[in-house]
Amino acid sequence: MSDNVTTSMDIHEILDHLPHRYPFMLVDRVLSLDVGKEIVAVKNVSMNEPFFPGHFPYHPVMPGVLIVEAMAQAAAILSFKTMNVKPTDDAVYYFAGIDSARFKKPVSPGDQLILKVSIDRILRGIWKYKGVALVDDQIVAEAEMMCILKEIA
């Protein structure tokens, strides 16, 4: 295993490397992280999620946009670890684009999302990633994402 591979990160280390907080924190654990390359993270989907009462009351389904957001949060952790910096109050990590998003199966309470995100390229401060979300080894969503770290004026 190379020096750049982190075997796991618990919630405390994730909180150090991700500016999001409840109710928008969508990464519970990092299973592995290879700096500059890829991350595998987990989102445990609970019936207590704040979106389920409205999406949908009699058939709860995790919104697809939040599955993509979970992948983007995993990407942010990977980026901060790759840059060897932590989030600050002086900058925000923004979506710059989402391409080729596909939703294959619904995600329900009790599911465990496995988020696999890899860096495709970095060009002029814009990071491009490929992400896939799985439940029980089946792809439930995939997307290409672009993000940028912007200073707050």
List the defining traits of the structure above.
153 residues, alpha+beta, Thiol Ester Dehydrase, Chain A, seven-stranded antiparallel beta sheet, 2 helices, 7 strands, 42% strand, globular
Report what the structure shows.
- The protein has 153 residues and is of the alpha+beta class.
- The protein has a single domain, classed as Thiol Ester Dehydrase, Chain A (Roll).
- 18% of the residues lie in helices and 42% in strands.
- The chain has two helices and seven strands; from the N terminus they run βαββαββββ.
- It has helices at 11-17, 64-83; strands spanning 5-6, 29-34, 38-44, 91-103, 112-123, 126-135, 138-151.
- Strands 1-2-3-5-6-7-4 form a seven-stranded antiparallel beta sheet, with helices on one face.
- β6 (126-135) and β7 (138-151) form a beta hairpin.
- The longest helix is centred in the middle third of the chain and has 20 residues, at 64-83.
- It starts with a strand and ends with a strand.
- The model has no long low-confidence stretch (mean pLDDT 94).
